[in-house]
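Structure first, sequence second, as always.
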């Protein structure tokens, strides 16, 4: 995808307009006018904030809210005709964007939409999303889900941080940079859902923990003694202080409160600890070393069919970091049709899956002429002689025992890609 956006915002400076009390200004040359400011010297409350946000949004036809917490990164909420259409900012702005793309547009790399400006302006994610819709890299339905998910996440963080909020500023926008709303959403429903999510999180005893914190295994031996081998391997492979609760929730397909509750016992026993996780680099970090989107389609595509979200995540992160394209499918029924459409260079295939197992899928793949020579590597937790013989009989190329690791994944890919070249 070659998605350069030529847009440069001209936001008015809020600092120049802010007075000691809420007031309107008249700056006819600017596209954004400072309208009012509400201060919370002693902090806010969830109830007060849930009442204040709708009132401020509905006070202007089109505009933005800026929410500040002292030295913390600022949040902003865009609204059109009194309805929220986008939200951004906070401590994990770029991490949230990458996670959302992986969830709602898994075939899109986060850096494939490049902006011409050398500034990360306020609406760049929304503009990038609009370009992706126009170029059919994401459906409007999926984009609307991404917008809704993003707003809910920002509202959750705002409500949780309510006691620390010191100021909310409102601007009126004469010129809309967001453009046509991607999704028409209800403010009341969004706030209600965010409140329910926060209440569920707090009910699990996690009220003081941020979902942006990153769990890390601290006492591996003690953890191994109180968990099953499968649970232990999963926790050790994912809890390295590099993934937030939200990242883990998306990877493992667990609701955030459910995930938090499953880890709470380990946290209380200090077998798992929480690290502060910095945001990812901005899309311009290392821009000169980015692979041009026009050439990305020529990179080898590696395909993973596995019903385990953890395995799919490890595959994707390992292979993309090494310069390959990677796709994963967790539904065995959809696997063959997706393979035919994508035509991968190497296929990793889980042996034990619901509905259709690896033997059946491998046999189906080999019936397609285009895949008769494509390397198929079986992933299994039971690396026995009988399994190997049966897999060879249906056309498997190789076996890899679980749990998988980055080194063995890359070795297998490089080996079979080199054989194909030779």
């Amino acid at each position: 995808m070659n998605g350069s956006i030529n847009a440069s915002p001209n936001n008015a400076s809020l600092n120049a307009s802010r007075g000691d009390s809420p007031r309107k200004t008249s700056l006819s040359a600017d596209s954004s006018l400072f309208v009012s400011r509400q201060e919370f010297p002693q902090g806010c409350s969830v109830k007060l904030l849930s009442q204040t946000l709708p009132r401020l949004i509905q006070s202007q036809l089109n505009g933005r809210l800026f929410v500040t917490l002292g030295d913390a990164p600022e949040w902003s909420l865009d609204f059109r005709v009194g309805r929220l259409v986008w939200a951004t900012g906070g401590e994990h702005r770029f991490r949230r964007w990458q996670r959302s793309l992986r969830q709602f547009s898994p075939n899109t790399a986060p850096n494939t939409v490049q902006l011409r400006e050398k500034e990360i302006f306020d609406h760049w994610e929304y503009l990038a999303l609009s370009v992706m819709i126009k170029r059919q890299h994401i459906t409007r339905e999926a984009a609307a889900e991404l917008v809704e998910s993003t707003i809910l996440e920002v509202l959750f963080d705002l409500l949780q941080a309510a006691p620390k909020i010191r100021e909310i500023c409102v601007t009126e926008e004469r010129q809309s940079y967001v453009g046509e709303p991607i999704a028409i959403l209800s403010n009341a429903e969004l706030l209600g859902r965010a409140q329910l999510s926060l209440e569920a999180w707090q009910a699990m005893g996690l009220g003081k923990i941020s979902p942006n914190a990153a769990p890390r295994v601290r006492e591996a031996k003690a953890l191994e003694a109180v968990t099953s081998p499968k649970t232990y391997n999963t926790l050790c492979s994912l809890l390295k202080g590099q993934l937030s609760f939200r990242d883990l929730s998306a990877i493992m397909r667990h609701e955030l409160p459910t995930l938090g509750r499953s880890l709470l016992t380990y946290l209380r026993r200090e077998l798992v600890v929480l690290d502060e996780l910095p945001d990812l680099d901005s899309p311009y970090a290392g821009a000169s070393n980015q692979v041009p989107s026009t050439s990305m389609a020529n990179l080898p595509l590696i395909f993973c069919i596995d019903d385990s979200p953890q395995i799919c995540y490890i595959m994707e992160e390992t292979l993309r970091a090494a310069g390959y394209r990677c796709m994963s499918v967790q539904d065995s029924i959809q696997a063959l049709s997706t393979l035919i459409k994508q035509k991968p260079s190497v296929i990793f295939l889980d042996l034990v899956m619901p509905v259709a197992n690896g033997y059946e899928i491998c046999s189906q793949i080999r019936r397609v002429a285009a895949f008769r020579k494509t390397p198929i590597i079986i992933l299994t937790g039971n690396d026995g002689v009988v399994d190997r013989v049966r897999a060879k009989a249906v056309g498997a190329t190789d076996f890899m025992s679980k749990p998988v690791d980055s080194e063995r994944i890359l070795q297998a890919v490089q080996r079979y890609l080199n054989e194909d070249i030779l």
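Margin note: Confidence is low (pLDDT under 50) at residues 1-30, 285-295.
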